[in-house]
Each structure stands twice: as structure tokens, then as C-alpha cells.
Write a structure and sequence with these properties.
mainly alpha, MetI-like fold, two-stranded antiparallel sheet
């Protein structure tokens, strides 16, 4: 019996290991291939060999004429940074209002905010295009920040409201009786509890802005073009420049890996706590 039990345990452990290896391969295989292709010379791009002489020429080409990746990289950094800097405080203020202040049709209004998350992007991109053309916001940082905020704020508000709802309102009332202002209450009581939620909201705002392709493709042309849209530039007369796409893709992926490595603890805590509300 003990022998059969040990055999079953070993078989289960083996199958579990195989399953984990397959999952890792499916998810990390394409990413690894992008990194490898980014350093491949043109002669090795269409081969399956893992052994090649690495080169940095691909990175030099994407920063040189006619691609000028440096400007696109700066556009992505600025748009993403401002989306986070504006979106997180705005979401916190809105979430606190929904959680603490009485208002008519609060539930309906909150549901309406969340319902915007279910609207397909293709439905709203044309109205945004017409509005931005009228306002002179096409191909501008301001326009891209605006549309990113309209997409990320509903999720951030929902997430942060879940954290604020966990704070006993009696704590805030006691602080205000002692003379604390509403702003001081938010700073000393609400913010410390919401730190994991703020991390999650900030990560979401950044990731969406950094990876956005559809809105940037339609609403930008030259001055505010971002990194994902730049991938279209590598369909040249010489054919598809996969090595240049991979080099650009490396710059797109690196911030995601940095974020997941440095703040994964806050992300897990924020996602689980906020989703329970």
C-alpha cells in the first residue's frame, strides 16, 4: 500500500511539473523569443536556431532615421506618467465621495461609471476623434491623456471605493470632532489604508496607457505617436522587419517586468482586497 501511494504521489508530482513547464512555455516562450530576436542579425531572424552572434544594430536602427524611436518613447513616458499622476488622485477623490457622501441615485450613478468599462473601444473612438478634431486635440499629449483617463478612471474608482468602505466611519467622525479637517482625515486615516489600492490603480493606469494601441493609432499621427503604434512603421518595402519589431517590443515589455518585480506584493494585496468589496 505504501509503495502504491508513493508511486501515485511521484506520478502526480511528475504530471504537475509537466503542467507547470507547459504553462511557463506557453506564456514565457513568445516573450523569450522576442528578446532573442531583438539581438539577432537579419540573416538569423528567420531561423529557429538559438545560437547566433548577438548584435546591437537593431537598437541603433530604431533610434535612427526614419524611425526615431526616442521621440515615441518619450511620448509614451509622458502620457503614461500624467495619466497616473492625474488618474490616481482623481479616482481617490471620486471613490471617497461615493463611499462617504450622501447623494441622489448614488447606486445608479456608480453603476453608470462602471458600465463604461463594458463599452467596446471601437464604439467610442470615432466620437472621440470628431470631438478632438473640433477641439484641436488630435495628435497631442493632452488628447491622449484625456482619453486614457476616461478609460482607466472607472476601474480605479471601483478599486479604491472597496478600500475606503472597509474603514469605519466612526474613526473619521472622531477625528473631525477633535478638530481635524476633512482633508486631514483623508491624509491620516484613509490614505494609509488605501496604499495597496493606490498601487493597483496606478499600475492599471500605467499599463493601459503604455500598451494602448487602438486609440493612439487613430488619434495620433506624428507628434504624439507612442511605442505600440511605432510597430506599424516596420512594415517596409523590404518586408516585415521582425528584428526591429522585436527590439521595439523589448522597450515595451521592460517596464511591465520592472513593475511586476518591484511591487508585486502590493499588487496582489490590492487586487484581492479591492475585489472582495
Amino acid at each position: 500500500m505504501d509503495f502504491d501511494r508513493q508511486t501515485k504521489d511521484r506520478a502526480f508530482a511528475f504530471l504537475r511539473g509537466v503542467g507547470i513547464a507547459m504553462i511557463i512555455f506557453v506564456f514565457l516562450g513568445p516573450i523569450l523569443w522576442i528578446f532573442l530576436t531583438a539581438f539577432k542579425p537579419l540573416s538569423a531572424v528567420y531561423t529557429m536556431s538559438l545560437w547566433f552572434e548577438p548584435t546591437l544594430d537593431n537598437f541603433r536602427q530604431i533610434f535612427d532615421k526614419p524611425f526615431y524611436l526616442g521621440q515615441k518613447l518619450w511620448n509614451s513616458i509622458v502620457i503614461s506618467a500624467f495619466t497616473v499622476a492625474i488618474g490616481v488622485p482623481t479616482a481617490l477623490a471620486a471613490a471617497y465621495s461615493f463611499s462617504r457622501f450622501p447623494m441622489k441615485y448614488k447606486k445608479s450613478l456608480f453603476f453608470g461609471v462602471l458600465a463604461t468599462q463594458f463599452i467596446p473601444p471601437m464604439v467610442v473612438v470615432l466620437p472621440f476623434f470628431l470631438m478632438f478634431r473640433t477641439l484641436g486635440l488630435l495628435d497631442t499629449w493632452t488628447g491622449m491623456i484625456w482619453i486614457n483617463l476616461s478609460i482607466v478612471l472607472p476601474f480605479a474608482i471601483w478599486m479604491l471605493k472597496g478600500f475606503i468602505d472597509t474603514i469605519p466611519i466612526e474613526m473619521e467622525e472622531a477625528a473631525m470632532i477633535d478638530g481635524a479637517s476633512r482633508l486631514r482625515v483623508v491624509w491620516d486615516i484613509v490614505l494609509p489604508v488605501c496604499v495597496p489600492g493606490l498601487f493597483v490603480a496606478g499600475i492599471f493606469c500605467f499599463i493601459f496607457s503604455w500598451n494602448d494601441f487602438l486609440y493612439a493609432l487613430i488619434l495620433t499621427k506624428k507628434e504624439a505617436v507612442t511605442l505600440p503604434v511605432t510597430l506599424n512603421a516596420f512594415y517596409t518595402e523590404e518586408g516585415d522587419r521582425w528584428e526591429l519589431m522585436a527590439a521595439t517590443g523589448t522597450f515595451i515589455l521592460l517596464p511591465m517586468f520592472a513593475i511586476s518585480f518591484f511591487i508585486q506584493r502590493h499588487f496582489v494585496q490590492g487586487a484581492t482586497q479591492g475585489s472582495d468589496r
